Amino acid sequence: MTQSLLTIALLIALSAFFSTAEISLAASRRLRLRQMVDDGDARAALVIRTQEQPGEYFTVAQIGVNAVAILGGVVGEGALTPFFAEWIEPWLGSERAATVGFLASFTLVTSLFILLADLLPKRLSMTEPERLAVLVCRPMQWLMVVFKPLVWLFNRLATGLTQLLGLPTVRDERITSEDILALTEVGAKTGLLAIGEQQVIANVFELDSRTVGSAMTQRDRIAFFYQDDSDDIIRARIAEEPFSTYPVCVGDIDHVVGYVDAKDLFQRVLNNQPITLTDEALVHKALVVPDRLTLAEVLTQFRQAHEDFAIIVNEYSLVVGVVTLNDVMSTVMGDLVGPSDEELIVRRDETSWLIDGITPIEDVERALLLSELPHSEEYETLAGFLMVMLRRIPRRTDKVVWGKYQFEVMDVDSYRVDQVLVTVVDPNKVPDTPVPPATTAPVA
After folding, report:
1. Given a cut of 80, is residue 248 above it in pLDDT?
2. What is the pTM of this model?
3. CATH number, domain 339-424
């Protein structure tokens, strides 16, 4: 009995070893292993190489797990069944005692293998995969040599079956932006990464999806000069609307001939020199980009042109806005930068927000904890969302209800939606699918 119990314990330990080897290799993160290699752990490099071609490794693990489990059942049945049968026989008789003894030994051995050789090692391997993988990888390499003929046979059979079923034979190691964002979200939830830092990372990946319209200064808010403006007009405009850069136009804003830096104007003012925008040394050539570019593409244009200011035009060559490098970086930094008086989204209380109509729709979705608003490919701002849902130009007091939120237009200035009040109308409703917009007629 003692020898049989020691044999069962040894088999459980072997099965736990193979389970640990299998799960730890599969769960080990490539980035963490590379960091261990950089720290001087050569065993991590062996794990990485094994992950690249894991077929033989997993074959050995499966041979070991199944062979040991079968052997454990045989040993356990032979050692424990007579013991249980002898103990139960006075109450049930010899025939029934043999059956019950077999069931008891089978249940006990199976339970021990499930708990100690399967669940416990696999749970440990999931929590510390890299640390355990470097410990078991070298012994598994030795076993791969010992069981080379069996490994070759089963590996060939498994590969053939996999190809026959049209399944992939190599693990895809590419890391996508979704993978990185998922890791940063987990890091923020566990406290290892600040929420603001996680948001900055998420904003960086949004640069490829956000168009320049979500960050630009709108046409009606552009401060610009006419080329023939007098010195007094230029000085008055600088004092009234202080900006770092001003477009210079001829006739109207749609005919931009360049731009002028505020620092150049200030230098002339301090030196008591007259300001004339016909001076070619003062007016620089402007970078003009289409309004369909993403923010990432705008950054590329800035880098190639060595500029930090651009004029945005639509397909009809009409100026729709201007954008600076600071605008793009403010989009990346989010709430970490920017004065409070320029906030586009103001939370009034737990169930309502006051939002500017030009707010990028991505910021609205983030503030309201929405995954996506309906028809999001057709607009870029909150005002655009209202136009699409209403199918007309929004008017004051117009309302759109979607999901658990009501969007009410509070102020309109010459067809431009200035302020929108967003309130929670049904806290329990989750916006799975778009619902028809609800509108009200404007108040007379």
Report:
1. yes
2. 0.54
3. 3.30.465.10
